[in-house]
Write a structure and sequence with these properties.
This protein is 24% helix and 27% strand. The chain is α/β, with parallel strands linked by helices and 428 residues long.
Length: 428
Amino acid sequence: MHRLLLRGKPCISRLLNVEPKAISIRNYTYDLPDDRIARYPLPQRDEASLLVYKDSGILKGKFKDLKDFLPGNSCLVFNNSKVIHARVIFNREGASPIECFCLEPYGRQSPDEIFKSHTSVKWLCMVGNAKRWKEEVLTKSLNGKYGPCVLSARKTGESGRDRIVDFSWDNPSYSFSEVLEMGGVLPIPPYLNRPSEHDDEIRYNTVYAGMEGSVAAPTAGLHFTHELLAKLSTGGTQTLYLTLHVGAGTFRPVSGEYISDHEMHAERIAAGRDTIVQLSEACRKKVMVAVGTTSARTLESLYWLGVKLNREVQPGNTFFISQWEPYTTSLTEFPPAGEVFDKIVSWMDQHALTEITAYTQMMIAPGYSFRVLDALITNFHQPGSTLLLLVAALIGDDWKKVYDFALANNFRFLSYGDSSLLFSKQPR
């Protein structure tokens, strides 16, 4: 067992004196040299370096030894979303190509149903060269196991900066999932400054990915192997799986000087009834560890979803957790997470549901009081990003010490970079 160097007593402040909307993003930036960005993954996933932060102490280890740094009663919560071939490029004779970056099904339809469609689908897309796309129908010729297929795209409307695009194809033997697999490109992060390559098809998804719908990987999970997961399970670590389909908002830097000026992109979350039951039990007995910021947002969003139900707020057509809702909800006390998850299970049983879905726009920033999370496994994030704000919410100003240590000790940064295990400074 590795030992942490303890430096000072743990801070137990919940940071509730911080007004999140007044935070200047300039206080959450750092100098990231270009050569510290990992352009490619390591040959072996779990050979990544691991920074461990606990009680203000920091040490460097290997990700494959993760079990040695976790309490024996840990519960790891993973995001099992899978990255799709979201970039569809339509070449045009004598004209610039048009790119449709598929963000999410339009109208908040279930991704599962959309991917199973064999006729046509409607998507919200970020469009490259949008001004050059007038009224014409774009086409792309494909060929696969069921023979030739022509994919067509028609622009039918706008939604903010994005476009509503109708996709159709002339070979109904193919599902839309198969059409995207043939005709789309895996959307690796733009800061890698390189095109997607064959190895990215495997390495830019987790080994446990199963639910199609993300346009960016939940990168904290990229370090896990089947062997490491088996080792954790054998050692008594509980593992649970939720779904948050990562949107393109993860690439967008905070706009404006203050985070009140930044609008988070809403992302779809889903959890099965059995998982919520296990979460309820785990929250009462175990150290809750989120694998990635997306898992952290999903867990905390589910808590606030349960608070809505506890206050007899009915969801209507869908649950939605707004960006600042946790900071403005009036509660005389915060119910324990286990009780809140029990409420979700009860509500699901009343409505004969085996899965609950919602959309979350929640921003986790300094001033947020974590209700579920005890620790976070995460990579090293871009300066001035909402992901770095989440880290700062968890460990306070020590985020600077963590990042200084990572830079001084040759850690690799961003999506294909190294990892960290950060224990919260907030008691929940």
